[in-house]
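Reopening this ticket.

The earlier resolution said the output was attached, but the attachment link was broken on my side. Pasting everything inline this time so it's all in one place.
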Amino acid sequence: MRRFKVVKSDCAGEYTGAWEDTSFKLVDAGSWDDREQRPDVFLWHWSKEKNDLPVQEVLSLLPRLLVIISNRGENITVPEELIEVYNLQSFAGEDTSFTICSRLEGEVAVPDWDLYKSSSTITREEQIKAAAGSIYRFLLEDVIRETAEWCGHMSSVVGHM
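Inline output:
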């Protein structure tokens, strides 16, 4: 099973188990010079008290996705420097919103919230797990697409030899 890397920022400590349960590997931020070793996701929990998204850190790591988790209804402002690099998408669960900034083709599918709830109402952790599952599938589809493109390219090259 493929384990995508998630950079857990200082404020992303809450509900990290939901990401690990979905087969993500949590890593600390650091220097990622090798493109193949760069993180797949940068995780940020937005709050009214701590809404200073570390733009320079995100740009230096250049993950495939930036995932901002917030309370439903909070106004998230993505800085212009990130909008130049990433496509924006957002969706919300019961009380949790997800802003996805992506450098990849397509969009993350809105999770099927009902698959993840264990009682009549879905908890915040279950909402995060549902979103993490959709994000995992989106990243896996991108790997499959890249592999298919590479195989198509290689077969055209080998076919002309």
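Reporter confirms the inline version is readable. The beta strands are 4-8, 24-27, 41-45, 65-71, 87-92, 96-102. Residues 124-159 form the longest helix (36 residues).
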